[in-house]
Please model this.
Amino acid sequence: MTRRAALLIALAIVSAEASAQASKAAPRAADGAAPSVSIAGDWGFRADPTAGEKCVLTGDVRIRKVKADAYTCTFTARLVCERGVNRTIDTEQSCTATLKGSAVTIRSKLERVTKVDDKPLKGSFGYFADSFDLTLNADGDEMLGKSYDVNSAERVKFQRKQELIS
Model:
């Protein structure tokens, strides 16, 4: 074997190994496109405290895909205020979500207020549904943005809940 043939064989082997490693590092869909990102799954969220009453909104969301870039969701939310009214409000809400690129929009409907100050709700209560404008990170495990409310626009962080493997 000539020296030139040996170099060509070595180059072909190195090229094949580099191609295999690149495929592992950046998986592709069958058609060669980048894999699609989905926001479907279970998420937890926490918003920054409001300016006046220092209210903090937290909750758990389950998002289900219904068609390309369109989702439905349900969630429970807890609003805890440390100043002013000093109360805790628990709610159940339904929502729709859209994903366009990395932009996520969640628009909610208040289904019911379940508790106020850890007591069952009696009568009506004025609580606005919690909606959000978010940006999904590249790993698909975190969304950052703002709550979308006529009364406030606090920063909020959603984190994908990790599935336990048994």
Observations:
- The mean pLDDT is 79.
